[in-house]
Amino acid sequence: MHPLLRFTLDLFEPNQPPAQVEKGPVAPKKAADFSHPQANREVSLGQTRVAYAFNRGQRRSIGFSVSVDGLAVRAPKWVTLRDVDAALQAKASWILRKLHDSRERQTRLADQHIVWQDGAELPFLGQTLTLRLDPEHRFGAAGAQLLTEDVAAAPDQAAQTRQVLCISLSRQATPEQIRDVVQAWLMRQAKRIFQERLDHFAPLLGVQWKKLSLSNAGTRWGSARVDGSIRLNWRLVHFKMSVLDYVVAHELSHLRVMDHSPRFWDTVRTLVPDYAAQRALLKSEAVPRWD
After folding, report:
1. What would the DSSP string read from start to end of 166-178?
2. By CB neighbour count within 10 A (0-12 exposed, 13-18 middle, 19+ buried), where does 240 fall?
């Protein structure tokens, strides 16, 4: 048939419904690999899907932050969503690395959960501390006392010791009672150690701290104010002394430089030359969960 005639017939013939295509079950949408609790946008970074919390605010540039919750993005009001997506792709490697690091840290934290009972173990100044209930209170200190005792070793092995924290509680003590006694003891140790290290480092910088407060913050390890007030997280006593010294030096350095400029880090370096390694340990090592 001539094409023109076929075209004319098509104009007058009734429309035929398209053939029905049999459809199988619709696959459910795959959940994001990383999802923020307040996620309202999603992006694919390579093969990884990330649901993130997006907000606009009074700022000059797009900002990214990765916490235990996941990725949060803040952008100026005038920035388009296309620009946000482009910025996410440009920072993809950094974002994915931080998200994976955060997830690994949370896994380690879960493994560090303490069961508050006789024989429980927790880190103290980088070493393992064993809890022992001592209802007869066979030591002189009030509440708890740290002891060092020998550990039986094979004849061909060197002698070993372990640290034991004796607690004057009965065998029927509740987990909450044990936890509270241990926390009180750790906080006393923290304040004593912090004061010693502040007094050690402050003269080296030519600064003077005025007041020390203990913090119980979830993620912040310390802070300093221009008036000489220092706040340090008591949980730092879980880390070894080199890490603790880095945090003390960090806050004292703020009494000289109240920002994180190159001059500030040069100041920290005068006290802790390997501060970068200690800072990395602070970020990577897990501390016990106190819930």
Report:
1. EE---TT--HHHH
2. middle
Q: What is the pTM of this model?
A: 0.63
What residues form DSSP beta bridges with 211?
229
DSSP run (H or E) holding 203? helix 175-205
3-state SS, residue 59: coil
| C-alpha dihedral (108, 113, 119, 122), degrees to nearest 10 | 60
Contacts of 212 (CB under 8 A, 6+ apart): 191, 194, 195, 198, 230, 231, 232
Please count the other Cβ atoms lying within 10 Å of the Cβ belonging to residue 98.
Answer: 17
User: For residues 268 and 263, what is the distance between their CA atoms, to the nearest angstrom?
Assistant: 9
C-alpha 5 chain-centroid distance? 75
Note the pLDDT tens digit of each residue in 170-186: 888 899 999 999 999 99
Tell me the pLDDT tens digit for each residue of 147-167: 887 666 556 666 577 888 988
pLDDT in tens, 88-113: 999 999 999 999 888 877 666 555 67
CATH of segment(s) 121-284? 3.30.2010.10
Name the β-bridge partners of 128. Answer: 123
Cα separation of the two ends of the chain:
83
Q: What are the domain boundaries of the chain?
A: 34-111, 121-284
Please state, as a whole number, how many other Cβ atoms lie within 10 Å of the Cβ of residue 282.
17
